[in-house]
Give the backbone structure.
Amino acid sequence: MKAKPAGLTMAAVLVMAPAIAFAQGATFQSTNTDTGRNWVQGHWEVIEGTSDRDYPGEGDTAIIASGTVVRMTEDHQAAHLIVEGEIRGSTTISWGGGVPLSHTFGNVTVKDGGIWRLADGVGEGGGSETIVPIETVVTGDVVIENGGNLNAYRLNGADRATLVVEGDFRCETTAFRFAVFPRPNWTLKFDGDEPSTMYLTAGEASRNFTNIVIAEGKEVTISTVQGVYLEEDGTLAAEDDATLNFVDTALVFGPGSVAIDSGATVGFAGPGGFSNAIFQVAGTRTFGPGLNAVYTAAGGAQVGDLAPETMGSLTVDTPDFVFLNKDLTVNDSLVLVNGRLDTYDPLADEQNTLTLAAEASVERTNGWLTGMLARAIDASQTGPRVLPLGTDSVYTPVVVDITGAGTGTGVLMASTNAEAFDPAPPMPALPRYWTVNADGISGYTASLSLTWAEGDAAGLDTDLLRAARFTAPNTFDVLPGQSVDAGARTVTVPGVTALSDWLIVEDADATSVPGWEMY
């Protein structure tokens, strides 16, 4: 479990690190009230516990008391830094070149009007002043509350500061603002081993960011009341293998940009998906073609017209449905946990197509797809291809199993329809039919399995059910050797060499009839 803030108590939180030869667990409070340029590390008073040091170290609690200003020039690694006054990152006086500085803290709370400056634009003397990049690492959580303020002031366009948070980042004050003039162009980077949450309360002044980066392989959930505002030239970025989840008001807006790498995962618990309902930035929106999307929203989420034309994987786990706004190709996996994926766009009244790459897997628990599904196929590769089809309320899949290799590469196109086939066959039939076609392949032999829905065969003898293939203009062919599994509600047809529309009929003698004319 990651370390959590110790709230407003004086109790120190132990942060494991290499052995240090001094007592730990003391609480220090800053006592320096000098407002000139002579801050070094401030003056510290031990107000709880014991210490043989005059500054906070690993395992301690450090309080920047109200009315004091402290400049951090060393890596104190305080377990819990509580900022009530003002804390400043170091300014390097260069005289020919400085080196990047870094600070590490445990948990940080900025409250009661306190100010935490990640970089300090105030110089200390002559020479050629240069502010070098400062990276501040918080191994636990950052909490901004009660009018606390965080900024990354820079001098004369100097390099930017970076705040790396390994735990949660919580802003619980509407008086908070990240940006100051001149624009700091600072970076908030999540790089912890455990999943993090970025929580922002209501109020425009509590959500202004420059750069937000989800580091490679890390996971962050953004939970906001009114969204995340990206400053000009700012970017929300998820690196390769990172996971970025949106909950509550899933909104990213402002003049900045969004960049999601291939291999990253984006989770949507709201209805917007990749559309303008989520990403309303005025800058560029870049989504890698190999990204992974996960939809858990209720109420009919949309994949989004801003989504890339190809994805690595698509996961649907919703009590309702997710629909496509555009044609989409999935290269690696389609994961249907709950709910349905609908290729029909009800907003535009358009039918779209989901295409699965030849090597893509289908992982299904309770979900299914309605509408048009295409699956790339190499006829020389034998084995089953699952087409996880259904209609609005039921799962009625198709399995095309290539048992005899053919030639060519092409696509299987499939859909299912919860209505009687027209023209009707000359015997009782289920009120459902399947369209399964192949393009670009030949010379194959397949076994075709059709699964009907519970209630479809009411009043019929399921032992007599057979699959009939429609051949235009008005012929139905029933191939021999079919089998029925009434418990699984499945008819299996071996020896298929051509695909078309299929329906299921009741006829004891159907297997002996190669076809019949309707008119």
